[in-house]
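FAQ: What does a ligand-bound record look like?

Like this one, built around heme C:
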Amino acid sequence: MKKTVTILLASLLTVVVGCASYEPLVSMRGADVAAADKAPGELVYAGKRPGTQPVIARTFSTQPPLIPHAVDNFDEVTLTENQCMDCHGPANYVKKNSPKLGDSHFIAATKAFDPSRHNCTQCHVPQVDAPALVENRFIGNIK
Ligand code: HEC
Ligand code: HEC
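The answer part, i.e. the structure of the complex:
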């Protein structure tokens, strides 16, 4: 009997101490786990009509340059269409006064456009003026 009371008291003490040190969990996304995700606010891409802004400085040597201009009005790149090539392609870049495709976008032996580069926005992305989601201490290798 005495032993049972001791065990009971010890258990009670554990619960009381446990409760005292209990801090409610605050989830990183600031909502209850079961709550549905809030739709993020819609942000517009920075950049205006091509030809009206400087290019964005690169931060590391093999970086695909960021797209400085708006892209919202362009058609999506599809299997048969690529509006980016209308300005950046080898046949048009001079008259469109646009930066030429990188040398790496051509097959070295034949000088033909390398079709593996067809999906431009897989590597080149437009920019949004938004605060960084996490602290970023990245330092590039371009002086
Ligand atoms: C109407 C012509 C035009 C079209 C279409 C166009 N661009 Fe551009 N692009 C330009 C011009 C001009 C610049 C030079 C910067 C500026 O004025 O915006 C440029 C700059 C760039 C740069 C920066 C190059 C560097 O050296 O920093 C990239 C990358 C780029 N464009 C990718 C694209 C992609 C990808 C598409 C298709 C989604 C596209 N562009 C469609 C004209 C065009
Ligand atoms: C697999 C990734 C990839 C794809 C796909 C790609 N690029 Fe690039 N692009 C790069 C990289 C990396 C560079 C910078 C180094 C270089 O020239 O290879 C670059 C450079 C450029 C430049 C600047 C060239 C210079 O030297 O100043 C332009 C303009 C450009 N790309 C446009 C395009 C367009 C338009 C397309 C689609 C037809 C495209 N790229 C597809 C990775 C890519």
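Follow-up question: can I read anything off the structure? Yes, for example: The two ends are 79 Å apart (CA to CA).
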